[in-house]
Design brief:
Blueprint (H helix, E strand, L loop, with lengths): L4 H8 L5 H9 L3 H12 L9 E3 L12 E7 L2 E8 L7 H16 L15 E8 L8 E5 L7 H7 L7 E6 L6 H6 L1 H17 L5 H12 L2
Parallel strand pairs: 3-4, 4-6
Antiparallel strand pairs: 1-2, 2-3, 5-6
Length: about 220
């Protein structure tokens, strides 16, 4: 049976979640993650530094945030690509996500043993590529949401904290990081060109096609 015209058109429709798709494809590779993490942290990781990816599919925000979680050098990194306005509730969302990751990577039943369970040191990184204006780098803290935050500041203490580092990876921002990560730089340029072509009135499909051709070496 021949495919109907409608079905053919559906097959030709571009992926409107193209940024998430490309991000997942690129940054699910251990070598690329080493490159990216080295660029962000300003370190030089050995090519044989082991990486274990343990991403929880759609665990954070049901398709609205593209996230990758991985273990590297005794650290647990939660890397999130964010395409819209940064939400002040991000630290709270990541706190929940972090607990879910711990439940996956350690035996929670051992919490009741006397011997202390060792866990990897967490780091939380958000890569922002939305179209709304945003600074090159910002820090979000869970403590900013505490109801008695004024007293917290005056006493300079808290029993619980979670810090999220946000980096603007739109083309033209954080040039030092992008220069150190060829993959991230290419991704940033690709998204920038897609937007540029769309603003001329081209369809998303045509914009993606031209952007890919532009970015090919």
């Amino acid at each position: 049976m021949e495919t109907s015209n409608q079905e053919q058109e559906q097959k030709l429709q571009p992926n409107r979640e193209h940024k998430s798709s490309v991000f997942s494809l690129l940054f699910s590779d251990p070598d690329v993650l080493r490159e990216l993490y080295s660029a962000i942290e300003g370190v030089n990781l050995s090519p044989d530094t082991p990486i274990s990816i343990n991403t929880l599919t759609d665990a954070l925000i049901k398709g609205k945030i593209n996230d990758i979680s991985f273990l590297i050098d005794n650290r647990l990194i939660v890397l999130i690509e964010h395409q819209s306005t940064i939400n002040d509730n991000m630290p709270l969302r990541i706190l929940r996500y972090f607990v879910e990751i711990l439940e996956r990577i350690i035996n929670m039943n051992k919490m009741f043993n006397r011997k202390q369970i060792k866990i990897p040191r967490p780091e939380f990184i958000v890569l922002y590529n939305g179209e709304n204006p945003y600074p090159e780098k910002s820090t979000l803290r869970l403590s900013d949401a505490f109801m008695d935050v004024e007293r917290l500041v005056s006493e300079s203490k808290t029993s619980l904290e979670l810090v999220v580092q946000v980096y603007n990876i739109n083309h033209g921002y954080n040039k030092e990081i992008l220069q150190k990560s060829e993959t991230l730089n290419g991704y940033s340029l690709l998204i920038d060109k897609i937007r540029e072509y769309q603003k001329t009135g081209l369809t998303l499909a045509k914009s993606i096609e031209l952007a890919v051709k532009y970015c090919k070496p």
